[in-house]
Amino acid sequence: MALVIPGVKGHLGNTDFYQATMKARDLVQGVRSASELDEWTTMSIEERLQRDPDLKRVKEQIAPYIAESKDRFFGAMVVLVYKGEIYFDSLRDWVSNKAPRAYQSVSDNIGILTIDGGSLIMLDGQHRLLALEKVIKGEVIGDCREDVPNDDVCVIFIKHESNEKTRRIFNKVNRYAKPTSRGDNIITSEDDRSAIIARQLLSEGAPLGVKARGSSDVIVEWKSNALAARSTKLTTISAVYETVKLILRGEGVALDPNNRPAEEELNQYYETVEEFWNVVLEGLQPYREVLEDSSRIPQMRKDDQPYSLLFKPVGQLALFRGLIAATSDDCLTLREAVRRANKIDWQMSSEIWTNVLVAPSGSMLRGEQPPVQGGKLIHYLIAADKMTEEEIANIRREYNIAHGIDVNTAELLPLPKPIAEIFPMAVGA
User: Fold this and answer.
1) What pTM was estimated for this model as a whole?
2) Domain that includes residue 275, residue range
3) CA dist 372 to 40, 309, 348, 395, 424, Å?
4) Domain count of the chain?
5) What are the two backbone dihedrals, phi and then psi, of residue 373, each rounded to the nearest 5 degrees?
6) What is the pLDDT of residue 29?
7) How far is CA 260 from the centre of its chain?
8) What is the mean pLDDT of residues 169-177?
């Protein structure tokens, strides 16, 4: 059965294309991904036009967004008319010479699109198509699920002329479609509570809303996920975002990046995070100093400086993990934990951080594990006098594993001395 819909004709390079809208239910019923072609299994890698879809991303990210968001929106999909014919009847013959000039001037490119025979193959947008299918079939639940079938989806149709040309179009569309960066997502999200709160922390009057010296910008780097050696920024928006998640998780708040909570809840969460950050910034001496004069940050970030790790995002995430763990059972208040943290040797060259936060070469370790391991070590350094023997033994095992020691056969390295042993008077011991 032919598909007949109103559309607009365009021409780009040597390719004719036709733009129209389809109801989501019709799109799901009529358009297939390339992998569903009967010929797919016998095609060589040179003939296949798409990679296999990332079904985990479809199920966990895209489909929930479509099913749950009233403000859902996405750009046009590109559909290949494979082994079918495209006919376009413009309105030119139906527009009277007495019609306004504006109508006459555009009537050639507005008309009725008829697609007869062949297959409609998703060339760009297969993940969105699969997500729509899951929502419409009821495989993903959300408040907006019943409305999705009637959504108008923008579609661009092009005719398949050859595998070479189609593959080239597919390659360029995907290669030059730059995904949004992590920082962009944090800055723009209106659903992720952690992103919203992270932005609020940078507003005027907020803990991180302080302006960098000689700049109209705040002391948080929000344009990049990295800090240059000479940057006068204290941290990155990505690191702030992670601290928000850690603080809220420590308070037992379930994190859902796709569902914006009520404003009252958001305000409560923000107050919790704001208080935590205020205590850290007010309680740690190096942070107090740079908030007064951010021009000192590049010098204090240098590897040989006494507080250098506190000016590295990885070190900051480890700090927050350690503070949250040290205060989780109410044995220490946050202010006391921060006061004790002032006594830690934060210099990158200190041997206590080797293989935990710092590589033997002297560079910062990368990945998700260093802040986790570093946080456990900081927890121990701050609150060893409040921990059980079993808790300390577990941290010692992980400390040795980080050093590459076989904990089942070799003699274990001792843990560094905690603050309570080095500065007994400082902790009231």
Assistant:
1) 0.73
2) 183-422
3) 44, 15, 17, 11, 27
4) 2
5) -65, -45
6) 94
7) 16
8) 69
